[in-house]
Design a protein that fits this description.
Layout (H helix, E strand, L loop, with lengths): L1 E5 L3 H12 L3 E6 L12 E4 L6 H21 L9 E4 L3 H11 L4 E3 L2 E4 L3 E4 H12 L2 E2 L2 E4 L5 E3 L4 E2 L3 E4 L5 H5 L13 E6 L7 E4 L9 E5 L5 E5 L12 H19 L9 E5 L8 E7 L2 E7 L5 H13 L9
Parallel strand pairs: 1-2, 1-12, 2-8, 4-14, 12-19
Antiparallel strand pairs: 3-7, 4-6, 5-6, 9-10, 10-11, 13-16, 13-17, 14-15, 15-16, 18-19
Helix pairs in contact: 1-4, 1-7, 2-3, 2-7
Length: about 325
């Protein structure tokens, strides 16, 4: 079977890797560098904790697959830092973890996820790219019969196509009748000097203009901290520089007021352009032989998403709305 995967972010690479392992001949294309768009940056937070028992179950599956990849690569992709969750979502998330049979505990209103930790995203991307060998290629259009048209005028018709192109997905699949949300926003997180150890933290309590915050120890040795501003402050029309300025101001204020163990002067910045958030979730659809995957906060689930989408392609898993 010949498959073209459009997109060399962590989800596209995970899908291509799984397809290759299942005997497919795969060509993975991206307009830019692998892991260069929404998958940019060295680290993310891995967590089993979610508000939906089905997502908790999929995250547990992903955790096992991350371990498998770690063994194959000879390096650990998910650290043992653990995760703590605070704020109003704790009861719902704890109930979901209980329903899914996931180990956790709640102490003084704080949820502890022992399977959580820092995800070595850059290391995982390098491992997958070495196996998949993605190519630079600008895909202009995809047809339901699998014909892939390149911007340089070239075309090919594999047996199946997977579109996991992040911000480029809506334009490619809208002509196929697949409705993928197209509204983007700007986001920035910042690095701060501080102690060398500590768990990852998701805090759902408001902090100044931030509706919620997150933090984890990054591979640079700094603390990566970000937060979620009101939609008006992350709007695409504002531009990346203005949103980063507003984000920096809000995050620095949060650090000064709530994280006195950190130096409040940012020493690094990472920008990305996610879809306007619809919450956690993975979506899959199909048009002819074209398989489409999209969603929010996907990096932590990448091995499981790759497994599911590869199964869709070879025909042994159902295509549905969630993971």
């Amino acid at each position: 079977m010949r498959v073209v995967v459009v997109g060399a972010g962590i989800v596209g690479l995970a899908t291509a890797y799984t397809l290759v392992a299942r005997g497919a001949t795969v060509r993975c294309l991206d307009t830019g560098e692998p892991m260069g768009a929404r998958s940019a940056g060295d680290t993310r937070i891995f967590r089993v904790a979610h508000g939906d028992p089905a997502l908790v179950a999929e995250a547990r599956h992903a955790s096992e697959l991350w371990d498998d990849w770690s063994i194959t690569a000879g390096r650990t992709f998910v650290g043992g830092e653990r995760l703590v969750v605070s704020g109003p979502r704790v009861p719902v998330w704890a109930e979901a973890m209980t329903a899914a049979g996931a180990i956790h505990r709640v102490v003084d209103g704080v949820l502890h996820d022992p399977a959580g930790g820092v995800l070595d995203l850059a290391g995982a991307g390098a491992f997958l790219a070495a196996a998949v060998r993605p190519e630079r290629g600008d895909v202009a259009a995809v047809e339901p019969d699998g014909t892939v048209h390149l911007a340089d005028g070239g075309a090919e018709r594999p047996d199946a196509v997977v579109v996991a192109a992040g911000a480029g997905t809506p334009a490619l699949v809208d002509p196929l009748g697949v409705d993928v949300p197209a509204e983007l926003e700007h986001h920035a997180r910042f690095a701060f000097d501080g102690p060398a150890a500590g768990p990852c933290h998701l805090d759902g309590r408001p902090s100044g203009s931030l509706a919620s915050t997150y933090q984890h120890r990054a591979s640079t040795g700094h603390w990566a901290i970000g937060g979620h501003l009101p939609d008006a402050d992350t709007a695409w029309e504002l531009g990346a520089d203005e949103v980063a300025r507003r984000s920096r101001e809000a995050v620095v204020d949060h650090v000064r007021r709530h994280l006195p163990h950190l130096d409040p002067t940012p020493v690094g910045e990472l920008r990305c352009t996610p879809m306007r958030s619809q919450g956690d979730g993975v979506h899959r659809a199909r048009a002819g032989v074209v398989h489409v995957v999209w969603g929010d906060n996907l990096a932590k689930l990448a091995p499981r998403i790759g497994q599911l989408v590869a199964g869709d392609v070879v025909g042994d898993t159902p295509v549905g709305g969630g993971a």
